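Chapter review. Work through the record for Heavy-metal chelation domain-containing protein before attempting the end-of-chapter questions.
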Amino acid sequence: MSFATDYLAQLTAFADQSPLPRIRALHLPPLQPTQSNKGEFCAVELTDGSIGLSYVLLDDTLAKLHRGSIGFGLVGADALEVARRFVSDTGPERTISFAAANAISRCLFDRAGFRPRDSSDSIGQMNPEPDDFIGMIGLFRPLLGRVLKSRARLTVVELKADLAGEHDGYHVTLDARELAECNKVISTSTLLLNDTLDQMLAHCRKARWFAMVGPSAGCLPDALFTRGVTLLGGSWITDREGFIAALTSGAPTSKFSSKCALTSDTYPGWRELIQRARK
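Structure tokens for Heavy-metal chelation domain-containing protein:
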């Protein structure tokens, strides 16, 4: 069973107990140069205001979404049916289906009266120390400062060959096997989109802390916790209208959302959430 299969089974159980809102809209960031790292996420909005995010800078996903070349037909669509495509879709279709799944997760959280704890720790509460060997899956440039300041050893696994090599205080590699000796790992949630989660986790068996972070990490965490992820850090949208206006104009969205974090000891589990949502 894959993460996607487990995740959709949980969302289906929620839908079996409670009618879901339909899709209101797909919101896209403006087309911008990929290297700018702006406009990284799209949003699927449900008719109850629930919003789910998904990363759009893999390959030419954003351009294809803007061209509408895959015939969306999303307005008024059954949110669960769109989300179910996450199990088998690829490319832009998978991006949309993941965002729809995350929107349903937010709907469940709200109906259950559950909100993840706020988090001001951008590096997943890993508390880097000098004797740590930290792995980073995807180069998080804004996070480098805190890790390097701790004097921990740092290896970054990247897909971009031009980033590989020795840098000031850290090493970038294309070979995920170099994560094998890391005792702490922080990862982008893009692993869920490109379906490399299990592959990467297999290289991190010695890691006692595996944090997955990013705005699109808005999924139910159960299937991640059972696979060895210890923290899921995402964005909790606090101002729907402001967030959408900022996203679609290419402006910063941070003042319309807050960082949040889920760990197994602070999360009640998807079954409990569904029970709360029924009351």
